[in-house]
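Budget justification, computational time. The allocation requested in the original proposal was used primarily to generate structure tokens for proteins on the priority list. As evidence of use, we reproduce two of the resulting records. The first is shown immediately below.
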Amino acid sequence: MTEVYLNSKFAGNVDNATEFVESIKEERRKSNITGNLNVHFNENSDKIEIDVSRGRARRPLIIVKNGRPLLTEEHIQKLEKKEMSWSDLVKEGIIEYLDAAEEENTYVAFFEKDVTAEHTHLEISPLAMTGLATSLVPYGNFNQSTRLNAGSKNQKQALGFYAANFAVRMDMDVNILHTPQVPLVGTIMHEIAGYDKHPAGQNIVVAIMSFKGYNMEDAIILNQGSIDRGLGRSSYFRPSTAEELRYAGGLVDEISVPDKDVKGYKSEQDYRLLEGDGIIYPEAVIAEGDVIIGKTSPPRFLSSLDEYSLASSTRRESSVNAKHGEVGVIDFVCITENEEGNKLVQVRVRDQRMPEIGDKFTSRHGQKGVVGLVVPQQDMPFSASGIVPDLLFSPHGIPSRMTIAHLIELVAGKTGALSGRHINGTTFDAEPEERIRKELQELGFRENGSETLYNGETGEAFEAKIFIGDMYYLKLKHMVANKLHSRARGPIQLLTRQPTEGRAKEGGLRLGEMEKDTFVAHGASLLLKERFDSDKTIVPICEECGLIAIKDEFKNKSYCPLCGENTPISNIEISYAFKLMLDEFKSLGIYPKLQLKGKY
């Protein structure tokens, strides 16, 4: 007897497992039971698992019977004439959806020509195995699987034209590429998804070669001339918001230029860009710390006594400033109301970004890298026909990663650019490499994509032939301008008195356990004395009981709360975090006694 489980719960036993599973599949194909059902017979554990639950990834396949696919030419003609729809194919049992479990018991053919009597299903198209982003990678079947995954992920981080109405949207932290292009080497998915409406990259000339060691370890080298002509140029947008909140007792915030008697008034210089209504004007150039929206709020803590005093009328400053490290131009100002009917002001800051050292670029094959050097055009290598590459890619990125499609795309892009056409690079169904190489040879170039390049500084020909061609490159949202961060002194946390964390909060850079080891290994261990005193504190300690004493600033003397005023007290230097730990011990009822030795 074989156990049957429905949605992982025991449902009963059956005598003939194979017959039972087949009958369920037949009924599903006849639409007598729900098409959402999947059945899996696990022969090892002798269990049948039926699943109709939600949240399973399922994919459609053409059913094969007796070595012939059920989808015929007649069906395809009916689909083209719109006499039949996709759902009809599913209802008639020509196509069915399988989940990961049921797929275990199937034998799927890639192409119709491969179908044998043993096959149970046929792929609609092998491209359907991949997701949307993955199917945009040209010649994907020539790449190692890991790199195909990486290429898919990288495309999601590329800058492009994300929405046509971006000018009137207030989106958080977005980028627009100024001159996006449609790729020369595309896939069928580029047409289906309407990629020309939202492109996210540029076709550029790439040469695979080393250059003075500046493109080691995945770095790339850019041509300054290409940047001047608009390569990878983008705009970065970021909104700031302020609203007039209402508080208990009829008090409200006010968006206006703060008066000088307001608590926390900055300086006239900070408010210089505000207009009469307290809001900055469009196209104003701002720097870090400038006030964008002026605002005052009622005092924080109102007690019953304060209401009668004159002091309570002092409002506090709560303006919106340009954040730490933020510069740019005011792009758009919007004054509206929120759901509660309170005044809401939104201001968008724009910043033009040109590629610089540290910005991240990638091809569609997971070959990502940061800019290691920007070279003046006159120093870049050039070909016999006067072509200067826009980007130099390191040859060491190819052998271990096995991204052969990266190389094929270079040759295909070169052919497409010279013959003025788009090249189909659909995974499993692309233009064959041999035909492209033949066409390139007919156009007067070497069929293997390499050319003689000349040194831009000396004019001498390089001995090695350099692989050069056209390629679709993407600029990623990881720009050095958003990540650059340093600090000397700055804000600290209230509890531990250590520097705050993170770039946005102007935090410190943590020197951790491993960094400490490197200093010790260098023999620079005394440097740690300086590195580890971000929360250095001087604490009075009672020499009798070893607990922390009290420093009375008013009387300018220290005394121990336990032993009285006449005990000797020493000031010692410890980390505030250690002092905090001693206090935590006290709360547990543990006596942390500090035994002081004389300092000789």
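The second record produced under the same allocation is shown here.
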Amino acid sequence: MADVYLDFKFIGEVKKPKEFISRIVTERKAGDLPTHLNAEYDKNVDAVFIEISKGRAVRPLLIVKDGKISLTNRHLEQLEKGEISWSDLIKQGIIEYLDASEEENALVAYWPEAITSEHTHLEIAPLSIVGLCTSLVPFGNHNHGVRNAQGAKNQKQALGFYAANFFTRMDMDLSLLHYPQVPIVETIMHDISNYNIHPSGQNVTVVIMTHSGYNMEDAIVVNQGSVDRGMGRSSYYRPVAAEELRYSGGLIDEICIPDKEVKGYKTEHDYRFLEDDGIVFPEAKVKEEDVIIGKTSPPRFLNAMDEYNLATSSRRESSLALKHGEQGIIDFVMVTENEEGNKLVQVRMRDLKIPEIGDKFTSRHGQKGVISLLVPEHDIPFFASGIKPDIIFNSHSLPTRMTISHIIELLGGKVGAFSGRNINSTLFEGEGEKDLREELKQYGLKDNGTETVYDPITGEEMTTRVFVGNMYYMKLRHMVSNKLHARGRGPIQLLTRQPTEGRAKEGGLRLGEMEKDTFVAHGSSLLLKERFDSDKVTVPICDKSGLIGYFDARKNKMISPVHGEDSIMTTVEISYAFKLLLDELRSMGIYPMVRTEQKF
């Protein structure tokens, strides 16, 4: 007898587990049981496990019986004509969904030619072994598996044309590529997913070589002329919203230009972009601390008499101003109402982002890098044909990463550019490398993808031929202008007196143990004296009790909390965070004694 478990809960026993499993599968194919129910017999523990829980990964496969595929040519014709659909194939028992447990007892073939009498299923397409984004990686079968996953992840961070109605939407932190292109080298998934409607990259000419040491590691050297002509140019959109909130007692916020009598009034200069209704005008060039939406609110705390005596002076300023480091042009202003009928103002801001040193770019193979140098067009190496590359890519990035598909894409892109067609690079089914090489020969080019390059400074031919091709490059959302941050003095936290955290709050740059070591190794260890005293405080300490004292302004003396005026007080420099720790310890009833050395 074998135990039967439904979602790992014991529900009974069966005498013949294998027959029981085959009956479940037969009834599932007939449509008497749910499609997503899976059953497996585990010989090791002599138990049947039935799974129907939500959240499991299940995948569709074609059923194979006695070495024959259940899907016939007639089915394919009906599918093309639209007479039957996907759900009909499942109902007819041609396709079934398998989960990880049922896959244990299944033998799946990749190709129809590989089917034997032992096979139970066939892949709908070999491409379906990976997810949507990974299937967009060209020639992925020539890559290391990890690189395919990283290439898929990078594509999610790429800027592109995400929706045609972007102009009427108020999306948070949105970047839009100005001149998106459809890739020359594409997979079948680009057609299935309608990638041409929302592309997220550009076809560029790439040369694989080093250039004056500037593209070390993963850095890329970019042609300034390409940037001037619009390569990688994007806009960053960000909405700001304010609403007139209602408070108890009939009080309400007011969107307007605040009066000078209002508490917290800024300066007239800060309100210079506001129109009569208190809202900024479109196409205004704003920067940090400029007010975008003027607003006043009733006071936070009211006593009984204040309710009847609400003058302008008692209202407070609550306008929306740009945070530290923000800037842009006002793109769109919308005035509407929220669900409660209160006035709601939304303002969209845009900022033009032109590629600069530090911006991140990537190919579809996980070969990401930042711009290290923008070379003027007259200083970029050129080919015999007169063409100049857009990107100079470092050859050292390839041997360790083993991204062979990166090189094959360059070949494919070159063939596609000369032949004027798209190159099929679907996983396991793409065009062969030999075919691409043969086609290159027909156009009078070297079949190994190399070309003669000339030094732009001397005009001489370079001694080696370098690998050149076209490929799809993407600009990632990690731009240096959104991350650049520096601070000398600035705001501090009330509790610890240490600098605030984060770029938006004008926070400090934290120096850790490892950063300290770099200063010491550099021979500038005295810098640490400045770096580690952001919350320095001078406190009087009683020599007898070891507790922190205080200064009595009337007596003009330092006083000990235990011994009063009788004790000798020593002033000590400590971190305010340490002083806070001593206070915390005392609140717990622990006596923290600080021992001081007498100075004579």
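A brief technical remark on that second record: The chain has a mean pLDDT of 91.
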